[in-house]
Each structure stands twice: as structure tokens, then as C-alpha cells.
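Before a colleague's protein record goes any further, I have to sign it off. What it holds is a sequence and that sequence's fold in C-alpha cell form. Would you go through it and say whether the fold makes sense for this chain? The record follows directly below this note.
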Amino acid sequence: MAITERAFPKDSAEGFTLVELLVVISIIAILLAVLVPALNNAREQARTIVCGSNIKNYGPAIMMYSQDNHGELPFSFYWLYSRKTIQAGIDSKKCQEECRWHYDVDPPDGSLWPYLKTADVHMCPTFRNFAIAGGLNICPNRLKGHSTGRNGTTMPFNPRYSYSMNRWLGMDWMSFLEDPTLKNEPSIQLSKVTRTSQCFAFTEENLWHINGGRDNLNHPLRKGDTVVYSWTALAKTDLWLYALKRDNPNDEVQANIATYHGVSKNKCDEGKANVLFVDGHVAKMKGLAGRDAYMEYGRPWIGHEKQNEGHIW
């Protein structure tokens, strides 16, 4: 029985034509252009959820601390690292206080650490990505090289925390005036806080200033702002919202909440921060510029700004 030839054209094994290949490549490129941003957005949304979940853990922690310490809140300077540890780093010139956030040699030993003994809880993944990519102000990342700035020795660059405590919640102003050394670590009583749903307890900070290009970082004022948003970035473990009303409104803010959630990287000055309030709820909110920030979400009680005849800063 004769074997018949298959009914296919002789040139069917010659493959795709150039036009066909270009069409396929174009389709793949279009699909990637659509899918990659969507995937990146999904990843960032997942990171934002983790950041909000992490910061929520501070709520029960400060409540348990207060119950164990006669109703007092943790002192904002030393809730993650003790005074002894921070001072030892300064004295040895191994770690300036401003570099503590990325110095991974010393284990946390602050007053709140026994209630949150999980290192990952203290770090927002979005913050870590910014830190690894560009560092923070005077602290360039490991790729750019980093030294203490005093004896020239290199130091670790491994971000350890990204959340800051409200200084006005964790430091008693009148006690500070009596003893500026803060040796007694004066915080305030939780019972004194009456704005529990408006006063933040912990939040996120930026890795940069937003002060209208008044330094070499050149971040302009945010759209719609007429005064400086922030003069400092995350370094220590507390966030200081300036409370004293000044003649020059550009001097009214020292630090402020983060602006990098919910926006693209090229608009990282325009976004929001995860904020934990004293009553335990977490909100994603956009910060206010100038003294309005302190008045809206910084002061623990109405009239806090009137202490010492209004000379509170």
C-alpha cells in the first residue's frame, strides 16, 4: 500500500514570517506594559497593608506598658533603645544618635521592647525599600558608603525601625522645663490624654525633608501648601511636631508624618502615612503643613499648647 503525502504545503515547516514575529512581540510588549504596573501596584498595596498591621501592634503595647507602670506612657526618647545603649554608641563614636535607625549591632532594650519582641513589627517594608535605595539625608546607603562622620570608620546600614512615637505623648513638657537633662525620663499619664481619637501615638516618617528646597535635597513645598511641611526626617525614635506659633510660619514644623503611601515614587511627597491613634485605631492620612499638624493630631489634650504661657515648642 502506497504511503500518501500529508496534505500540508511544502513551506509549512519554514516557521513564522518576520511580520508574524513582530506582531507577537508587540502583543507581548503591550501585555507587559499593562500588567507590570498593575503587579507593582498590587505589591505596594500589600506592603502598605503590612505597614498598617505592624503599627497597630503598638496600641496594645502602650496600654500594657501603662498598666504596668502606674498609668504612665513610655518615654518617647527611649522606648526602643535605652538611654544607656544610645549613649554608649555616641561615646564610643560607633553610632551617632541620628544613625541609630540603621545600626544593627545593638539589640533593642528600650522600655517598650518587652511588649513587642519581634523585630519585623518595627519595620514598614515600603520604608525599607526607600532606605535601601537612597538612604536618609546624612546617612547614605551601603552602596554609596557610610561612615560615622567622626572617625571615618564604616558602620552597618541595615534599617531597624521606621515608626516614631509622638513626642508630646511621651514627654512631659513642664517636667522638661524643670530638668532639661531628662534624667528622670518624664512621660505623661495616659489618663491626661483626652483627645484619644485625634492624638497620634505612633506613625511613620519620611527619609527626606519637604521644606521648599531649603537644603541640598531640593524637595519643593507640597502642592497646595504655603509653608514648610517638615524640616527633619526619621532619625531618632520620636516625632516632634513644633507647637510654638512663630512670626515666620516656615519655622513652625520640625518633623511630620510620612508622605509615601498610595502614590508613585516620583510623587512621594504627596502621599499618606499609617497613623496609630491613642484609642488604638489606625488610619491612613495625609499630613498637614505648619503648626496645623500639631494642633490637629499632635496635642494630647485641648489646651496643651497653652502650657508655660504658650511657650511650648
Observations:
- The mean pLDDT is 85.
